[in-house]
Amino acid sequence: MLHSSENSFLKPGSPASNPNPYNPVKTVTAPVDQATIGRTLVIKGEITGSEALYIDGRIEGKIIMPESRVTIGRNGKVDASIQAKEVVVMGKVTGNIDCTDRVDIRAEGSVSGDISTVRITVEDGAALKGGITVRAEGKASQPQAKQEQPKQEQPKAMAATAGNA
Predict the structure, then answer these.
(1) Where does residue 129 fall: left (phi above 0), alpha (psi -120 to 50 degrees), or beta otherwise?
(2) What SS3 class is residue 34?
(3) Judging by beta carbons within 10 Å of its beta carbon (0-12, 13-18, 19+), is residue 160 exposed, middle or buried?
(4) pLDDT of amino acid 87
(5) Given the DSSP bridges, would you call strands 132-134 and 119-122 parallel, antiparallel or unpaired?
(6) Under a CB-based contact definition with an 8 Å cutoff, are residues 83 and 101 in contact?
(7) SS3 for 104?
(8) Distance CA 30, CA 12 (A)
(9) Distance between CA 70 and CA 97 in Å, rounded?
(10) Which three-class secondary structure state does DSSP give residue 13?
(11) Distance in angstroms (rounded) separating the CA atoms of residues 67 and 99
């Protein structure tokens, strides 16, 4: 009988050992993947990172999350430029949005600024004030910025030359 109870003990032990490897995977995936800025938090400056960001507070400055999703919650107010893979707006955003994948402005969301993205969704009831640039999927807006910088430098050189003449 001891052998049969040991065998029955091993059978439940096998499934018990299977959930242990699965549980850490679930706990690592869910909480670590998203940072949350709560309602009462106010941040002024630059925010950078590689995990998803949920904003329910107030941000002023720059948000740079090129590999992640930035979600502005219903209570969120963002006065900043945003660079991210995905942006979901349920609150208020004042500033330019540059996305490598998609922008989703929900019914209660509001954006005042220019948007550059590959895909965009604007639900009924959402407010949008600004320009929209929809790019092809493989193209990024950064090369355009690099092209604009030399153009800005050329007039300065001309002005300096005209001043010397």
Answers:
(1) beta
(2) strand
(3) exposed
(4) 97
(5) unpaired
(6) no
(7) strand
(8) 28
(9) 11
(10) helix
(11) 10
Tokens, residue 61: 């400055």
What confidence score (pLDDT) does residue 163 get? 45
Token pair, residue 39, equals: 């309602």
Q: How many C-beta neighbours within 10 Å does residue 48 have?
A: 10
The CA radius of gyration of the chain, in Å to the nearest whole number, is 25
The pTM of the full predicted model, rounded to 2 decimals, is 0.66
Walking along the chain (165 residues) 10 residues at a time, the average pLDDT comes out as 50 51 47 84 95 96 96 97 97 97 96 97 96 82 43 44 45
**Cα separation, 90 vs 69, whole angstroms:** 13
Q: Which residue ranges make up each domain of the chain?
A: 1-32, 34-157
Length of the chain: 165
Q: Please tell me what DSSP assigns to residue 59.
A: E
Residue with tokens 């590689």: 50
